[in-house]
Amino acid sequence: MADTRNAFYAQSGGVTAVINATACGVIETARAHGDRIGTVYAGRNGIIGALTEDLIDTSQESAAAIALLRTTPAGAFGSCRHKLKSLDANRREYERLIEVFQAHGIGYFFYNGGGDSADTCFKVSQLSASMGYPLQAIHVPKTVDNDLPITDCCPGFGSVAKYVAVSALEASFDVRSMAKTSTKVFVLEVMGRHAGWIAAAGGLIEDQGIPVVVLFPEIAFDEAKFLARVGALVKEHGFCTVIVSEGCHHPDGTFLAEQGTKDAFGHAQLGGAAPVVAGMVKQGLGYKFHWAVADYLQRAARHIASATDVKQAYEVGAAAVKLALEGHNAVMPTIERLGDAPYAYRIGTAPLSEVANREKFMPRDFISADGFGITEQCRRYLRPLIQGEDYPQYRDGMPVFATLRNVAVARKLPAFELR
Amino acid sequence: MADTRNAFYAQSGGVTAVINATACGVIETARAHGDRIGTVYAGRNGIIGALTEDLIDTSQESAAAIALLRTTPAGAFGSCRHKLKSLDANRREYERLIEVFQAHGIGYFFYNGGGDSADTCFKVSQLSASMGYPLQAIHVPKTVDNDLPITDCCPGFGSVAKYVAVSALEASFDVRSMAKTSTKVFVLEVMGRHAGWIAAAGGLIEDQGIPVVVLFPEIAFDEAKFLARVGALVKEHGFCTVIVSEGCHHPDGTFLAEQGTKDAFGHAQLGGAAPVVAGMVKQGLGYKFHWAVADYLQRAARHIASATDVKQAYEVGAAAVKLALEGHNAVMPTIERLGDAPYAYRIGTAPLSEVANREKFMPRDFISADGFGITEQCRRYLRPLIQGEDYPQYRDGMPVFATLRNVAVARKLPAFELR
Questions:
Q1: Average of per-residue pLDDT across A142-154
Q2: Of A106, A268, B148, B186, which sees the most CB atoms within 10 A?
Q3: DSSP one-letter string for A253-288
Q4: Which of B16, B191, B398 is best to mutate for the A interface (most A CBs within 10 A)?
């Protein structure tokens, strides 16, 4: 058993409806390779758990509990928004990670997150190499924003896309019912600070005959043009639905709505674009409106997860472990699309040097010429990602989700203060 | 066939995830009694369709299309917010209804709505009697607000309750994942202008170990007490979820948030209590927050409908037709609860004189002593109503909903101008 090393798994950043399916894929696959991988430790609250040596012993969880992660939304071990700065600016934290890994015999680092965590994962792999510590650092993709490069899509996105498309369709049936004497415009605000992938999913309801206007962060907002478009659709159809991305902004770069607070990564905390847009419709066109802000509901909505997304989330977790066992380092499993219809894909690999710190925006040819909708190319891209339903079990009307025991591992090192 | 009369069915007020299941129950049951009921006409956009003689011939719809209504949200024939005033104030509109009914051989009036439409239905039955026109007016209950008297619950409520409970649970798992370094308080705004039934459903997540504060319209808002409660829960659990009813108000009666606009019934149009509450949490306690406003998403959410609710919605529609055939008039089918666990009920009947214009609020003993949660009695009431899942079919990742042909019936009367 000389080549048996332990593994460390952490969830990073905003959680999703399927990040636990990835955790399930990592842990089940690691358990299936007990000859090579000892214990899978998880970071309590993400990378902070590693820095503070607050490790969870996942071997204390039953096979049934781990299996239930596949249908449990959010982060079962806790996540965090703690970005490690550059190696020069915060070498102390990177070295601490290596110390903790060393103290617990950890030779595999699986970091499950978006662009920021890909960057951290890459730096940890570089530092461990320069320190001569044998570590295989594998980044596992996760982000509802769908903005990681190279991979065709990001686990977490398909489910939020399905939630947005289904919810927007249902609400559009509602406003269509009411439009004669009451609400004529329904505005739904969705996530997406910089990239409009989630908003684009709302555009799929046009296939079902719903007049819809999508406001992307990639297209500077033009109020006059927007009101003209809404007015024309209401005149023609009697109603319309507006999908507004939280990242929608004026030509000068200011967001339609900012709460004025910033998160740990220095990103402005957004919210409230929907009431702003609805107010413009009321003032400019006089139409009665309703608006909704889906916020966490959209990314936590495991009850309407995409079966394709759940499957891929599990597969990238399983693939990460296999990549590590094959000797890979500083890579990320990707989803490589082989065909749109019928949809086909395989799990590929990308070097983290090409993943870290690059955001993938909507291609301009995925957005219609007028900037308010999606093109057939975009539809071909999106449709497979929302395919299939993967319902959780229910008991007494409520979904059955896993709440793990999350047993702590005894500390071996002095305390470490986060700064 | 001398005793064959036609029927008129109309949807009223805010639509629900299951009002079309009621329409399905009415139409399928009427079709099964073709010896007594001729054609079922539906009002295009509710009662306005009757006033303007804009009738839909539902016999033009296939059996499959009508069956699909069972899983289709919102109002398939259109609804409206048009309240008929008192007989004295607007006798003209009531008489017009009778004229239209007479012109089209309509002897059965099925009006599917909440308290306002029960009142209208009652007045129409009174007027037809005084005019000597043979009409059986049956009100069919529908309201997400669950505020009709006599009936144990209202079709539409169970599904919105399930949506709110499931969504709040999922979002609570999300905030619990993030709370260590980021969001500690998640605020979800739900519907309910005067009655806190929908908000109460959010209280069910306490059964799943989630710290939750519910803000009811029945309890005057006390900011200091609220912040103390949230602060205590976050200290104990690290996070908490707040469910705020749109009707939550200050002791002086002003709502936490009003948009300043009013609907056709003179009700203030609400929205935006969640950001107000979230701002208080930030200012008073310094916690990072997220908020969501579910708005139409909650009442249109057919994808997560309660099987119990769908069944009851269908049954009250079927019962309405049977009541009419049995010779009843000015009544409403009700749901009579026979037991909580196991849940048992039967369809009963209530005279409209006792239904019209009465709102059923949450009993004080359904709300916890501190005003921020629900009691075991309330749980026993709510639990059966969210039981069971009743999923729509999906095609290519999207739910398959009915869009009817809605063929117009030729007009026989002079035009009528709505005032």
A1: 97
A2: B186
A3: S-BS-EEEEE-TTSPEEE--HHHHHHHHHHHHH---
A4: B398
Backbone angles phi, psi at B235, to 5 degrees: -60, -40
Annotated catalytic residue A54? no
Phi-psi region of A396 (alpha: psi -120 to 50; beta: other; left: phi over 0): left
**CB A301 to CB B263 under 8 A?**
no
Closest in A272, A291, A304 to B295, CB measured:
A291
Q: Do B180 and A389 touch (CB under 8 A)?
A: no
Q: Is B59 exposed, middle or buried (0-12, 13-18, 19+ CB in 10 A)?
A: middle
**Cis omega before residue B342 (within 30°)?**
yes
In three-state secondary structure terms, A307 is helix
Whole-number Å distance between alpha carbons of A192 and A215: 11
* Shared-domain flag, residues A86 and A173: no
Q: Do residue A292 and residue B294 have CB atoms under 8 angstroms apart?
A: yes
Q: Would you state the pLDDT for residue A271? A: 53
Smallest Cβ distance to B166: which of A294, A299, A398? A398
Residue B28 Cα, gap to closest chain A Cα (Å): 21
Same domain, A48 and A92: yes
- A137 and A61 belong to one structural domain: yes
CB B205 within 8 A of CB B177: no
Check residue A268 and give left, alpha or beta (phi > 0: left; psi -120 to 50: alpha): beta
pTM equals 0.96
The ipTM is 0.96
| Strands A185-190 vs A240-245: parallel, antiparallel or unpaired | parallel
Q: What percent of chain B has pLDDT above 90?
A: 90
Question: Are residue A309 and residue A395 in the same domain, yes or no?
Answer: yes
CA angle, B310 then B315 then B319, to 5°: 155
Question: Backbone dihedral region of B262: left (phi > 0), alpha (psi from -120 to 50 degrees) or beta?
Answer: beta
Buried b / exposed e across B239-260, counting CB within 10 Å, b at 16+? bbbbbbbbbbbeeeeebbbbbe
**Same domain membership, residue B296 and residue B165:** yes
| Candidate list A116, A119, A145, A147, residue with the active-site label | A145
Yes or no, beta carbons of B291 and A290 under 8 Å apart: no
Per the structure, the count of domains in chain B is 2
C-alpha A298/C-alpha A304 separation (Å) is 10
CATH code at position A290: 3.40.50.460
Q: Which residues of B17-50 are buried (b: 16+ CB within 10 A; e: fewer)?
A: bbbbbbbbbbbbbbbeeeebbbbbbbbbbbbbbb
CB-CB neighbors (< 8 A) of B163 in chain A: none
> Residues of chain A with pLDDT > 70: what percent?
96
Lowest mean pLDDT among B22-26, B60-64, B190-194: B190-194
Q: Work out whether strand A136-141 and strand A106-113 pair parallel, antiparallel, or are unpaired.
A: parallel
B-chain CB neighbours of A178 within 8 Å are: 14-15, 75, 79-81
- Do the Cβ atoms of A300 and B78 come within 8 Å? no
Could you tell me how many residues make up chain B? 419
Question: What is the DSSP code (8-state) at residue B337?
Answer: E
Q: What angle do CA B56, B61, B66 make, to 5 degrees?
A: 105
Count CB atoms within 10 A of the CB of residue A158: 33
Q: Which amino acid, B233?
A: L
3-state secondary structure of A249: strand
Cα–Cα distance, B38 to B15 (Å, whole number): 27
Q: Please give, rounded to a whole number of angstroms, the shortest distance from the CA of B266 to a CA of chain A.
A: 12
- What is the pLDDT averaged over residues A209-228? 97
> How near does any CA of chain B get to the CA of A291, in Å?
7
Q: Measure A308 CA to nearest chain B CA, in Å.
A: 10
Amino acid at A320: A
Please identify every residue of B annotated as catalytic.
145
Between CA A164 and CA A245 the distance in angstroms is 11
